[in-house]
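job 3f2a | input accepted
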Amino acid sequence: MTTFYTPPGYTGQAELTASNGLAIVDQGLWRFSQSGYNDGATFGLSLTLPSPLNGGNLILTAQDWAIAVVGNQLTSYTNPDTSETYPASQCRIQVTGGWEVVRQQNSNSFNSFNITYTAFTATDQGDRLMAPNLLNLFTPVATYEIQGADVTGGAKDTFSNHEFFCRSTEIAASTNSNKEFQSNTIIRPVWAYTYTKSWQTAA
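job 3f2a | predicted structure (203 res):
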């Protein structure tokens, strides 16, 4: 039976965001500020006449990004309870996660009531077309791993070369309830994941 040892503190939860690893390839008319929404992850989009009704493309990508806390490197570990040292060749790093893309009208704005939208969110783990309302996308999770040569199955790396991406569009298609036009929306695209770094102690 394959047995792994995970030291205290070597497993947890985190988010990949535009502040810590997602590169902004294109952001159209979306605005991003790490302090603007106090979370380092949320973009805002305002569309008003006579400005364009189309927000353009918001494209975020990441590859071989830094995994929170445990990092990306296979290392050795000495168990403080037994003084046994596990070599890097027995190390495995796993991340399991999915996209959580929240899209909605800005709750701080009262100008977007009754505006309808045509929008789209596409990721490497799933897509969602939306009309007439903005909808969230929560994709199924996937697991990526980096492991050493002495782990069951041999050396493997399904993480470093994988491209994580999120692409979004948004077009406002109507006026608001006051027969005027002002759309204020937000999008929060993050890859939410759990991470674990462990060492195989028995095959």
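job 3f2a | The chain has a mean pLDDT of 91.
job 3f2a | closed
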